[in-house]
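Reference record
================
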Amino acid sequence: MSPKRILIVEDDREIAELISLHLTDQHYETVRCEDGPSGLNRALNEPFDLIVLDLMLPGMDGFEVCRGIRAQHSYVPILILTSRAEELDRVLGLELGADDYLTKPFSIRELIARVKAIFRRIESVSQMSTGKTESGQIHIGELEIDLEKRKITLEGKPVELTAKEFDLLKLFSSNPGKAYSRERLLNIVWGYQFDGYDHTVNSHINRLRAKIERDPANPRFIKTVWGYGYRFAEREELQQ
């Protein structure tokens, strides 16, 4: 099996070299960029398993890079790095589709732990797909989900999802009827407890509903479990 490729977009050369050195020691292959435009260009034109993205970059900040990646290359996980302490930056990064964040200064041990957690999370969500068919696809009415290609179509038309939106849909559709609390969804899809970040789940669910529901205010697929969280409709409900 070939090593996982990680793109490091960081303008501080010493930090980038340090990250690259330790990730290489963990048997990952690394590529480095020192500005936003070159980082975005490589992210969109080369295959990577993870992007480590600093927010403060010359030419284009990390928010714009993240936005550009999610617009064109939605499935690749993103770990953002920021020297800013404000909660707003962390929340905005997550809302734009980042998978995790680290605030500088951080320990290399914590960085490696977060990287490994992201890869474990992807594998965990895949293993929880009990509804997977031999072809790697889930068919639910007019909704078709290709688990291998991480693509979905609705009434034959492609729908673009962010990495987190796809992971949520994959988890829900693979376990119809099972209710998940917001805290549980944070733990499964985001990887660990984001205390007080329930609104992150809500906003992702709202955006997902806007993309796959005919009437997001009266959802057919993703149901609200009042006072608890969300669940995917059972097949009997979808046939009504």
User: Anything to note?
Assistant: DSSP finds nine helices and twelve strands in the chain. Confidence is low (pLDDT under 50) at residues 129-134. The longest helix spans residues 108-127. The radius of gyration is 18 Å.
